[in-house]
Amino acid sequence: MKTTKKKVAFHTLGCKLNFAETSTISRSFPDDQFEKVNPGSPADIYIINTCSVTDTADRKCRQAIKKFVNQSPDAVIAVVGCYSQLNPEEVSSIPGVDLVLGTNEKFNVSEYLKNRDKRNAPDVHASDHEITERFFPSWSAETERALF
């Protein structure tokens, strides 16, 4: 018996790192179970990888959620990333949101969504913030060679 693949769309807000992470997240969805579609297309699942650098970034996330809910009212909406980490309660209160994952949990979104359907109340998974006590600068090997 052939099973129908769920259509999943990915929408990224923010920096280049978020785009790279969305690419990694999309690869966690098995091709035999999911069909990746453009976010402008109807889908069963929308994954929104968020930024929260400015109020504008948060607003763009809310606009994307509203757009996807209007586009596919029965779709599962998962909001992941910085906005979800910093304001999980705010994100979960947005009508249409089904799953909220913070920065540590976002790479497991495919596991959280297995056999997941639209529900009345969203699931929220965001780790507590940890206090950074030490700062370690990072640089490339090329930079290091130039310095020494």
Description:
By secondary structure, the protein is of the alpha/beta class. It is built from 6 helices and 6 strands, in the order βαββαβααβαβα. The chain has helices at about 15-25, 55-70, 80-85, 90, 110, 140-145; strands at about 5-10, 35, 45-50, 75-80, 95-100, 125. It has a 6-stranded parallel β-sheet with strand order 2-1-3-4-5-6, sandwiched between helices. β1, α1 (about 15-25) and β2 form a beta-alpha-beta unit. It is globular. Residues about 130-135 and about 145-148 have low confidence and may be disordered.
Short description:
The chain has helices at residues 16-27, 55-71, 82-86, 88-92, 109-112, 141-147; strands at residues 6-12, 34-37, 45-50, 76-81, 97-101, 123-125. It has 148 residues and is of the alpha/beta class.
Q: Which structural class matches the secondary elements?
A: alpha/beta
The count of β-strands is: 6
- Major sheet size, sense and barrel closure: 6 strands, parallel
Q: How many angstroms does the end-to-end distance come to?
A: 63 Å
**Shape label:** globular
Q: Assess the beta-strand content as a share of residues.
A: 15-25%
Oligomeric form = single chain
Percent helix: 25-40%
Ranges where pLDDT stays below 50 over 5 or more residues in a row are: 131-136, 143-148
Order of helices and strands: EHEEHEHHEHEH
Rounded mean pLDDT is 85
Largest sheet strand order: 2-1-3-4-5-6
Q: Enumerate how many helices there are, as a single number.
A: 6
How are the elements arranged and paired?
Elements lengths: L5 E7 L3 H12 L6 E4 L7 E6 L4 H17 L4 E6 H5 L1 H5 L4 E5 L7 H4 L10 E3 L15 H7 L1
Parallel strand pairs: 1-2, 1-3, 3-4, 4-5, 5-6
